Each structure stands twice: as structure tokens, then as C-alpha cells.
Amino acid sequence: MYQALLREQLETLKSSNQYRTFTTLSRICGQYPLAKLEGHDQEPVVVWCSNDYLGMSQHPIVREKMHDALETYGAGSGGSRNIGGSHEVYSRLEASLADWHGKEAALVFPTGFGSNDATIQCLLRRIPDCVVISDELNHASIVNGIRSTPNERKVFRHNDVEHLEQILASYPQGQPKIVVFESVYSMDGDIAPIAEIVEVAKRYNALTYLDEVHAVGMYGPRGAGIAAELGRTDQVDIIQGTMAKAIGVIGGYIASTQVIVDAVRSFATGFIFTTSLPPAITAGCLASVEHLKANSAERDRLHTQTAKLRERLKQQDVPVMRCSQTHVLPVLVGEARRCKAAAERLLHTHGVYLQPINYPSVPVGTERFRVNATPNHSDAQIEHLAASLRETFEHFSIPLASQAFRAEVA
Question: Is the entire prediction scored with pTM above 0.90?
């Protein structure tokens, strides 16, 4: 009975073109964004959708520090932070992250998903009668943390400050409230009106929780994120980030006041009952963060190559969705089956790896490729991608920008 039930659900997923398959890629150290495709002996493919935004996973100083830590401490951490897993690199990393965001303290988790999930659950369970108000496009890790508690919850329309204020105004000033939102939204590439959201939240006595995972390393002074770029870091109560994207390794973190961080450290089950990051991973994260705080070359090059890619896609009439304001360039396909077929053609005909993004990651009818350049992508690779997308769109009769966005112009 159980097998049949699950098999039926899987078949439904497949029939709707929402079934996810893995493309096995072996990245080539020192040659990012190139990767070997499993079972193929031809030339490497070019990866165009990695979250390794700055190529820091390949950086010599990161690899060196990871090797050194491996030889010094061994492979694993040995336990949770409470039971043998708080090795000396941890305190240095958390101090560095707190300094990055101008906060009193920081706390590191094994993953970015875990830092959102555990922190939000903890705060909602420890603050009596707390209402959580969440942007409708918040990441699954945020949604999971919220849904795991019985707290009252409200969703405000994406980046709609007026709607947020209407919700906040419906509660007594003294009732605890948390507003949860992101700075850069990874599927649309747009930026939240952080200053306006923070101002409204403070007016109604609400805590602010800002997810900066797609911004840290790439925006703001020393790469500290969008809030830092706007000079609003001190007004955001809790900043959450990841070390699996621009930092190039793995892990999540929060940065806040000493009291809030200590409360999460002391009460969050998702933190207490999990093994800590191994020393080599923590050392790699620390090396990357310290490098990005002191050097802007990688993020400067990222923005330069992003601008070139955006322009070449425009010249090829490839439909980059107009919501994009950042390094994330969502290319609209608009139908799950053709999105998957187009990805196959790009990979096997053009040597371009782009993952189809379908529901539930994005709404039905907005299926897309999520494209991003990195400092490591060459001008020639940008030219090749733009031409490959144009050929593939024409092959499958996928509407180009002049067709797809015609209704918006009319």
C-alpha cells in the first residue's frame, strides 16, 4: 500500500514535468566554470547556474587553509557544538562574521537552510504570542521554520510595503511581531525595499529578520550585503547568511545582538542537536570571508561580467525577465516541458549547463532558466551562451523577448 501510494505521487510529478533529475557534473579544480559531464568524454561543459557566485570554492587561499586545517585537526568535528564540536576555528569564524555585519555576535550552522529553519522556529517558540509576517516569495527554509510552529502567521504581497503596513497596523503595538524577508530574491533577481520595510516594522514595534544569502560577498562595503550598501545594517535586528554561495564553501549563520544569538544557541533544537561543521570547512569559510572583506576584485568582476551578459542576451532577444536588478538573470521559458527539453539541448548540443526551474520553485507559466555570470566566465563564454540560448529558443519556438514581452509594452 505504501509503495503504491508513493509511486502514484511520483508518476503524477513526472506527468506534469515537475519530476527532478540530477545532472552529474564533476567540476574541474582551477578551471571553474568548467565541469565534466558524467559518461561523456567530450569537451567540458560550461556551468551557468551555480551559486558559487564568485568562484571562491576554487580560490587558492581557501583551498590552502582547508588543506592546512585537515592536516592539523583531521576530517570531522567530532560532535555537536555542545559535545566536543566547538573547535578553535569556530570562534574566529563567528567573530569575523559578526564584524562583517557590524553585529555583537554571530552563530554558525551546518547549512543555510538550517540557520533559517532553526532560528525562526526558536524565536517563534520562545517569544510568547509572536506573530510572524513573511514576504510571499520567501525561501522554503523560512516557510518551513514558520510552518513548524503554531504561531499566527501572515503573508504580505512580495515587496509590498503598504500591504505589510496594513497587516502590522491590525495588531496591538505591544504584541510581539517579526517581519521576515530577503534582500535579493533568487528566482526573480529583484531587491527588497529594505529601508522602507525596516522603517515600517520599527514603527509598529516589530523585529526584522533579513535573509541576505544571495547578497553577502557581492554587494555593499566589504561585501557585507544589500543592507550594508544602504547603510541600514544597524537597523536590521537579525541578518541571516550562507557560506555556500558567494563564500564558496558550505554553512549558514545569523548575526545579531549577543542576547538574541545566545538565545538561539541555547534553545534552537536545530542547532543544539546537530553535528558541527568540520574544521577544514570552517577554516575554508573563514579564509573566504576574510578575503572578501579585504578585496573587491571578485565582486567588481562579477558585476562587470553580469552587465556584459545582460547586454548580449538583450542583443540576442533572449527574454530576461524585467524584475531582475542583480546578478541573477531569470530567462523566461514559460512551460515546463519545453524548459526541460531546452535544457537538454543546451547541454548536449551546445555544452551549456542550465537547470530548468519549474513549479513549485516558480509559479506555473513562469518556468525559466536562472542564469548568472561569475568572475570566471570569459567574454567568449558569454558570447557562446547568448548565441546558444537564441538557437535553442528558435529550435523549440520559445517566445523571444520581442514576443514574450510585447503585451507588457502595448
Answer: yes
